[in-house]
Amino acid sequence: MIEHLPALMVALPLFGAFIAPLFKKHYKGVSIWAIFITGISVVLSLLLMKEVVTNGIIMYVFGADKPTLVLPSGYAVPIRIMFEVDAMGAFMAISATLMSFVGAIYSYSHVKKDTGLEKYYALLMLLEAGILGMVLTGDLFNLFVFLEIAGIAGSALVGFRNYRGEASEAGIKYLMVSSVASLMVLFAVGIFYGQYGNLNLAYIAKNVSFNMVDMIALGLLFASFAMKCGAVPMHYWVPDAYTEVPAGINPPLLVATYASLYALFRVSFTLFANVVIDLARVGWIMSILGVLTMFIGVTMALIQKDVKRLMSYHAISQTGYMLLGVGVGLTVLHDPSKLAEFGRDAMAGGVFHIINHIIYKSLLLMTAGALFYVTGTRNLNEMGGLARKMPITTISFMVGAAAISGLPPFNGFASKFLIYETSYRLNPLLTVFAMVTSVLTLASFVKVFASAFLGPPLEKFENKREVPKPMIVAMLILAALCILFGLFPNVVLDKLVYPAVDALINFAQYHSWGGLA
Amino acid sequence: MTTTIIKTTTRLLAPLILVFGSYIILHGHLTPGGGFQGGAVFASGLILLIVANVRDKVQKLFEKTPLTQLESLGALGFLGIGLLGLMSYTFLKNAIANSGFLFGGTTPQGINPGYLNTGGTLSYLNIFVGTKVLAGLTSIVLIFFLILRRERDEW
Questions:
Q1: What would the pLDDT profile of A463-514 be if each residue is shown by its tens digit?
Q2: Chain A residues near any Cβ of chain B (below 8 Å)
Q3: A201, A259, A271, B28: most buried, per Cβ within 10 A?
């Protein structure tokens, strides 16, 4: 059964999603069902990672006699849809399943008062299925299909509180951005199909000649995935979407954003890896985009009064770190000495920052959701003195704020330090921007902490109390992960991050379907 | 919007459209078309019935129709057929073909008039996709119809 894991990873959330509407009004039942399904998928993703680390790339060919039958007898080209799971894909799968699980636990009480919950959980699991498909697939058109699934499920969830006008607006905005991005992806896929007559990622990557048309396709793919992961000139949808979505959906939505980042890495590392000369230029573009993203994001965050909006701008800013780290690695990908010297570590920093950021930003957005749950407002000026009323939320917030500002011993420090050290070797100016951003991040979180939690207790919050248990459990899981990842970064780096980075660097392995052809 | 002309035309056309939709679904593995196309045709027959009737009747009728359940059933059936391939093959492998089961007849080679009892899992997939599409499209139009008519009543 273990060889069917890649198919089961997508089939299980889909199964959960299609069962969910049958619960009708049994909201309690459907929330437990969602927790159950997402919990099993966490276990499956861990098994998948273990399998990938021990046995290398897993191939799964749909509809064939055997999962590993990449080239059926007599064919020189692959003809079937296949999943190709390397350590990077498995790494993203772990992030996706873990965050959906935490989101489902949190949602148990956070959206209790809303109606239509059977659809909410169905969409949550569909979103998970879409992300998992995106990160596991080895087929360009399949990538587009799963991008659409995740985009549509995500936009429906963003507009879930449709009694609020802002939520509907944010939902439509997210839908527009998703559909524009996926249409551009489809156009690029069409360009490849027209030239090479195949849709398999590895096959196209082996044959790509980087003529004019391929450059257009690279530009389209780069722009659309950068758009969906919220890099700076195209970041306008992020604050709206993250602010209006129910806080329980924030974790999977964050992973959906980073699944696009993963696709960006996949395109630039795997699809165009053989293009020696121009890859450094793409790497520089990615690094500079990263620096711009982190700086503009954080300066916009400083002036926000809405607590979730502030954190959303920080999400943009933190995406910049990942782009910077991996961009530095991409710049020196074809220079073995520099790659060994700092490129690999830079990419490790970028990839490590993905999971770190997903963890602490989800934690922070959940504490913001808890504040909203208790006070009914997201305006920082109307809050105050909540530390006594909500001690656990306060502690979770402090952990998250320390992690995002890169203070030791929390997980943000581990990955940011790697990025500082390595980007300095490429160009010191990049590091200066990264460190200034980090300082500004700390400043704005001190502001949030002071205005929401500190100060004299306000009269209007007299009889407010701590949020319900499921929300506390979800927040504590993530807070514990923040501390654990910060205390033992070497374990995480060796077990999860470096395999993922090596999978990106050893593109030849990916191109040969893990040695099967 | 219900005149005698529309009502009479609907009475004649709707059964034909529904039968044609079912035909496209069941013949999907032999002739052009398939689950999605047949489901869309079937749904258009149902939609014709919806728009040619008054709101109250439509609402009363479709309250009892399990459209949500049908949609879930279609998707779950598709998934189940896909998982059937996991028995000794891979996901979505055509495990029923040539097994002698319903739709599992042996496919004859060469020119032939087309045998319905072939196709293996393809025919099942077509049926489930058809179910999902007809339920989905009908409920979309139904929701638009009910919202539109309510607002017109309020005018």
A1: 888 889 999 999 999 999 999 999 999 999 998 999 999 998 888 888 888 8
A2: 1, 4, 7, 11, 14-15, 18-19, 21-22, 60-67
A3: A259
